[in-house]
Amino acid sequence: MTGARAAVGWPVGSLAVAGLLATFLSACTWPQREPWELAPLPPSGVEVTRLASDSRLNIDRVRFHSAELDEPRFFLALVPVGTATVGDVLFLNHGWADRPEELLRALKIDQVYTSLLLARQVKPAIVVLPDIRFSNYFRRHSDQFPFNQSLKLVADEAAGWVTRVYGVQAEQTRWGIGGFSFGGYVALDVARRYSGRFTSASVVSGFYDEDWTFWPRQPGAPGRLDSRGRGKQTIVAPGPVPRLLLACGTDDRFFGTMVKLHDRLRSEGIQHEWLTAEGGHTWSYWSSVLTPMLLFHLGVREGR
Fold first, then answer.
1. Tell me, what DSSP letter sits at residue 82?
2. Radius of gyration from C-alpha coordinates of the chain
3. Which residues, 6 or more positions from 159, have their beta carbon under 8 angstroms from its beta carbon?
4. Which of 90, 165, 234, 254 is positioned for an S-S bond with 176, CB 3.0–4.6 A?
5. Structural contact between residues 195 and 241, judged by C-beta atoms closer than 8 angstroms
6. Beta 57-66 vs 71-80: how paired, if at all?
7. What domains, with CATH codes, occur in the chain?
8. Of 61, 56, 13, whose CA–CA distance to 39 is shortest?
9. pLDDT confidence of 102, banded at 50, 70, 90?
10. 60-78: per-residue pLDDT in tens?
């Protein structure tokens, strides 16, 4: 509806209604889908497509039905070749306006990860790039959705399909989650609600809700609840504070917000790593911190 011209001779009331309708439709538009995203799922409920393969790494696309969103969703999976069992899974989330594929195109995650594997600097892991795109309606009215849809989508549904498709033993797996921009927001929200499942989290050029509580000894008041009885402080899988990494470029529009998050965690005695350097809200800066992120989550360390 953007850029539409008012028809000559329309009554003023009709123009007002048309304007409101255009605003509503713009707010409710869903991200564009590729034809394969709209295709029916097989009776098994899951569709696994091998997108790329070489002697070191397979890249798969896994489509499944999301009960939370009531529609098919997908994630990309980077799976090391020749590894019988995998003890680590790392979710990396894209930004609000991006797609999972752009983490491969712009950040070349597959190449960076493979290089670290060959150098034996990281342990073999399944690196998962979930599709966390949502309608602008949910972004503009986030106060009405205290339990973000991405939480169940990533931490329960996508994680569940990772265990089923790749034979991962959930109770023996070290789960990590990180993200860029909006993806960092999601990663931090998942980490505080599912700390019993995710043992490490990284937030790059992200933001947070100042009303959030971070691993309190006693759960806070849930506040407003959604239709399923879930609130802003609802904890799904309680556990210890995960290992945390924060990073942001000094020219990033979210730098002030990230500094506040860093200061708040420090004031609450929550240990974390804090990385900053010159850079903006750009793929270039995110590329510069990708290797430190992978080493933080998957690096070969004593006791791992």
1. T
2. 20
3. 89, 91, 170, 175, 197
4. 90
5. yes
6. antiparallel
7. 34-298 (3.40.50.1820)
8. 61
9. very high
10. 999 999 998 889 999 999 9
